[in-house]
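User: Just a sanity check before I run the rest of the batch. Below are the structure tokens for the first item. I only need the designed sequence back.
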């Protein structure tokens, strides 16, 4: 088994839509960033890359690279998931926390959970999305942060070679 941890934070940007876990969330403000600024998918991508000891999201998809401008962050996650599979691992479960004072995410957690499970091709019961506020402390007023932990399981050799043949 392998375990990986990811963390990210983005500032609010009033001109952009808010995306979390690939889902557009009703909000008066989105997040600033070079890509679509999906802070949850960035944390999750880093957790996957960390679990296999691969270079992190900032190294693999640098914000200085114009190719990634306004990119949908699911591409980063899918690329990380492909690296995980290529090295013979599968995702066991994901546990993530989004830290946001606004908007309130209770009503959206289920949708985000299902979206993340689809992106990773795992059952929704293996994905946990939690939402916390900072109770009004300064960072919560300026942006949104996310943390993610993933557990990877070794793909049995027999099924890995069967997959290659198929
Ligand atoms: Mg980021």
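Assistant: Here's the designed sequence for the first item:
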């Amino acid at each position: 088994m392998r375990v990986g941890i990811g963390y990210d934070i983005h500032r609010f940007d009033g001109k952009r839509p808010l995306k979390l876990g690939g889902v557009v969330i009703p909000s008066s403000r989105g997040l600033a960033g070079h890509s679509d600024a999906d802070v949850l998918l960035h944390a999750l991508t880093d957790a996957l890359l960390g679990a296999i000891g691969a270079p992190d999201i900032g190294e693999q998809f640098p914000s200085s690279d114009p190719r990634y401008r306004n990119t949908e962050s699911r591409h980063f996650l899918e690329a990380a998931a492909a690296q995980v599979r290529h090295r013979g691992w599968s995702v066991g479960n994901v546990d993530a926390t989004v830290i946001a004072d606004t908007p309130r995410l209770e009503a959206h957690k289920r949708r985000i959970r299902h979206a993340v499970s689809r992106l990773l091709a795992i059952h929704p019961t293996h994905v946990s999305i939690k939402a916390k506020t900072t109770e009004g402390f300064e960072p919560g007023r300026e942006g949104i942060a996310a943390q993610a932990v993933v557990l990877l399981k070794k793909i049995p050799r027999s099924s890995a070679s069967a997959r290659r043949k198929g």
